[in-house]
Amino acid sequence: MNEAASDTRKGSKGPGCLLNGFAAVFLLAGLAAMYFIALKPLFHYWQTDSWERVPAQVLDSRLNRSTSDGSTTYSVSARYRYQYQGRTYTSESVSLYGGSDNFDDFWQRLARRLERARLAQQPVLAWVNPDKPEKAYLERGLRSGSLVFGFAFGGVFALVGGGLLFFFNRRARASGNSEGGGEPVYNSNQKSGHGFLIVFGLIFALVPAPGYWPAVKGVPQGDYAMLFIFLFPLIGLLVMAGGWAGRRRYKFFGPTPLTLDPNPGYAGGQVGGEVLISRTVPHSAKFTVSLSCVHQETRGSGDDRRTDTTVLWQSEQGGYVESGMRDSRVQFCFDVPGDLPPTYQRGRQSVYWQVSMEGEMDGRELHRDWSIPVVQGDAGSRFTLPESHVEEDRREREEAALASAREQIVIKRTGLGLTVTSRAGRNLGLKLGLLLFGGIFAAVGTFLLMLALDEGGMLYLMAGVFGLVGYGLVLITLYMLGRSLQVVIRGDEVRSRRRWLGIPLRQRRMRLRNADQLVLDSALRSTTNGRVQEYMNLYAQDESRRVRVAEGIAGQQAGEQLREELLRELHLV
């Protein structure tokens, strides 16, 4: 058996248990926070709805302070006397909420109210259980700060923990589908992803359910902050809708098992295979297959723990389709450089290889990926694609890249010289996604700030974190949406002018005398459905300076085609 594959299996148990334990801590911490901080008071509120209110005399009250690590939390202790059905009772149960906290100034306000009533010898109203009159509360109201903190932070922790557990175990199952020498069939990682979304969306919608009616009842009394709770069913329904749509797509194309040959694949040789689709694919359908080598490293510990992910190499090609009477097979074959690392997991570092495929058929989009083992070697694959298909695919990709480059960047000759224009508003999908993400964070930060002005406490910290991220991202994205770049090349002189919403910002100049001075560089990477999209910038440079000629070119191949066309226009090739 191959040493690298053996090393992967030997090292996988310990790190896998550690990762699952780490994810379980997040999940349990989130569920505990949701239960004790938000759900438990909601259940108590619902249970005490039929309790009766009677006058009570405050005998003693005090505000308790507890300081730890520079943070002060509060609680209230009190003793009071009341009468119910002719009998006198004494109780020390103050509120639906136990323990101490500093979510808001709830405890301080309650302590002041009780102390004023005690000093003035004025009665307060207590909620009494008619079935067990010895049980009572002085304060039965719900706290919006506690609900926000419990559901928002507890829900996020629970979703992150549950998602990590699903992700870690999905990869373990995928990598365990087949090792070298076994049956070379692999299941896609999307096998149960839609089920995960449906279940967690349902949980997100149902967990806060006890608070929906109290929130509606609180609106006529001016407690509009309680309406925040309705964000959770909205998010839950959206997540469920995404999961249901994914389930329908999954059923349409079927389980799409991948047969790998050689098994495992070889860095220095080939990675080939075929994907089975459970229906006849028309000749007009196109499927793109990509192969990625990804490095992951976990750094730090505790609150500073983070995982860095880097795509070391990625290549894509058009799949070769063979259609039958009831199903179809999409074949691929990659030549893999020998200097890439094999699949491994040692301590905090790992390398995994992933095959991804996407396409469209009858208006339904297909996105699937498979985790596969790859070792060092030079073996080839039996899935060799026809030379005519390979040549046609190469030509189509070059033509598509050139068309994309011309659509993104405008090159034309004017009386001033050769003009290269990077218009404002390009790559709109990426930027609108960033704007939406930042807008949501900014809106939540603003909402939390409004709550903090009334209730104080930790809400100020939460508002600051959400607001800083949200408004910062919104401002950066608005700048990216409005900026444009115009470059004029006349003779060997390059002049660039940066504008934002048509307003000139700065100008730069330099000399461009040979092809080596025109350099393509990666500016940004985004990963969607396992595929990496690079955004390129084109520079003119010499020993002392670097002037940007074109920016935000989506796709490395489009950037390369743009560079070649520009060199032809400048007669530098």
UniProtKB/TrEMBL annotation:
Keyword DNA-binding: no
Domain of life: Bacteria
InterPro entries (UniProt xref): DUF3592 (IPR021994)
Keywords: Membrane, Transmembrane, Transmembrane helix
Domain DUF3592 as annotated: residue spans: 54-142
Spans through the membrane: 17-38, 147-168, 195-213, 225-245, 432-453, 459-481
Protein name, UniProt field: Putative membrane protein
Naturally occurring in which organism (per UniProt): Alcanivorax dieselolei (strain DSM 16502 / CGMCC 1.3690 / MCCC 1A00001 / B-5) (Alloalcanivorax dieselolei)
